[in-house]
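> example.struct
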């Protein structure tokens, strides 16, 4: 319920669909669609195998034409194993003129598969429709692992002994939108920073990638990404930082929080910019500056000054308090996780403990 209430202000544009924009939202219902004058959505495939993920659906062999990819700053999903693929339409290229918000060709499809202890649980799917809108749905695997069926609109649960509380939660379609539709771009893990060849060795939970992995240089070499600003072609994107710990901390916040807390107009209404911008006119210290703000929401029972981040004092930092919480009214991120991310918390705690006020606030103006 809380999620739906939040959506009202997370996604104020939800009912006014702008089919000309690349950052458009999935229509919530047919009447909203009709009011916006948009074409009816093609029917959703009932089975994952009908989305084109597999070359051979009988043995679930991934179509070799798709590219597997692995973002350097992955989202924490309670320790579940994830794999991701992208399919671009024939001849389609990605426009990277805005390095923070790539525009994908019509017909782009992406999949993310979640498995736990060797068992496939769900596969999430996003696609760019012929009229330019994006849609997001999940497919839930049967216990035998032979087929995955479209998840109900409001999500579902899958019993699994190793999931938190014995049940794995498949998010609702509206939860997908809370993260994907309000972000700078609807695709979150396939971006200049996430696919940079200059991978952060301290990034929590990142997959080890082999030399053949699809990264930014490979995409540029194949001509699949065009118009990327020159400086990012010569110098692989990287989070500017004072030290390696700060780089990894800011990267984690980018990957796990930046889709809601960013500099764009669809961000959630708090003064917090955790998405790292690669654009030329960026403020490289924007995240650090926004983190030393006074908290707008003082956690229940909090005594004294409430600052988002207090250099040198992790326990006095509201941001960390929210990340340590899994209470519905306090936890950050608010969706998609039931277990705290101990590895990332340890990293952020270490970073805050060693942070000096000047490093955190950035160079004086
Ligand atoms: C808590 C925020 C959140 C929610 C909820 C969420 N996602 Fe994502 N999703 C992400 C982030 C962040 C990434 C990129 C990082 C990664 O893959 O680890 C991602 C990656 C993906 C990808 C791979 C392509 C890409 O954008 O990088 C697909 C496909 C996807 N999500 C679909 C869905 C669908 C469908 C739902 C709902 C059933 C959903 N997601 C719910 C945050 C979220
Ligand atoms: C799905 C969107 C979403 C994601 C992802 C998300 N947040 Fe938030 N965050 C919100 C919303 C909405 C609020 C305002 C309501 C509230 O305080 O709960 C908020 C508030 C906050 C606040 C309080 C700000 C203040 O001024 O009091 C902090 C701190 C925060 N988030 C940190 C984080 C961190 C750190 C992450 C990643 C680990 C994160 N958030 C991920 C939606 C999100």
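> example.seq
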């Amino acid at each position: 319920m809380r999620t739906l209430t939040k959506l009202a202000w997370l996604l104020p544009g939800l009912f006014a669909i702008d089919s000309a924009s690349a950052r458009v939202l999935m229509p919530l219902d047919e009447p909203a669609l009709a009011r916006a004058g948009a074409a009816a959505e093609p029917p959703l495939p009932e089975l994952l195998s009908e989305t084109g993920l597999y070359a051979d659906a009988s043995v679930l062999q991934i179509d070799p034409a798709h590219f597997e990819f692995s973002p350097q700053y992955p989202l924490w999903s309670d320790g579940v194993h994830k794999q991701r693929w992208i399919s671009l339409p024939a001849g389609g290229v990605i426009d990277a003129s805005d390095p923070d918000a790539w525009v994908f060709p019509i017909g782009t499809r992406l999949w993310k598969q979640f498995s736990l202890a060797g068992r496939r649980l769900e596969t999430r799917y996003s696609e760019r429709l012929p009229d330019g809108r994006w849609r997001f749905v999940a497919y839930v695997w049967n216990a035998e692992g032979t087929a995955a069926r479209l998840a109900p609109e409001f999500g579902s649960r899958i019993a699994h002994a190793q999931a938190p509380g014995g049940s794995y939660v498949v998010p609702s379609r509206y939860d997908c939108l809370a993260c994907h539709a309000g972000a700078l771009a609807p695709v979150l893990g396939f971006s200049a920073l996430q696919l940079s060849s200059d991978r952060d060795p301290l990034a929590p939970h990142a997959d080890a990638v082999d030399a053949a992995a699809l990264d930014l240089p490979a995409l540029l070499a194949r001509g699949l990404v065009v118009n990327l600003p020159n400086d990012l072609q010569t110098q692989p994107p990287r989070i500017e930082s004072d030290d390696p710990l700060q780089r990894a901390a800011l990267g984690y916040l980018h990957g796990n929080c930046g889709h809601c807390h960013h500099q764009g107009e669809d961000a959630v209404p708090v003064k917090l910019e955790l998405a790292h911008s690669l654009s030329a006119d960026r403020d490289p210290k924007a995240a650090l500056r926004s983190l030393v703000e006074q908290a707008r929401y003082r956690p229940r029972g909090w005594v004294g000054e409430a600052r988002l981040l207090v250099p040198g004092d992790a326990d006095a930092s509201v941001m960390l308090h929210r990340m340590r919480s899994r209470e519905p009214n306090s936890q950050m991120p608010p969706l998609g996780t039931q277990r705290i991310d101990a590895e990332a918390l340890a990293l952020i705690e270490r970073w805050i403990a060693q942070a000096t006020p000047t490093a955190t606030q950035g160079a004086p103006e």
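> remarks
The pocket of heme C (ligand 1) is lined by residues 71, 74-75, 82, 84, 110-112, 124-126, 136-138, 171, 175-176, 178-180, 187-190, 255, 259, 333, 335-336 (CB under 6 Å).
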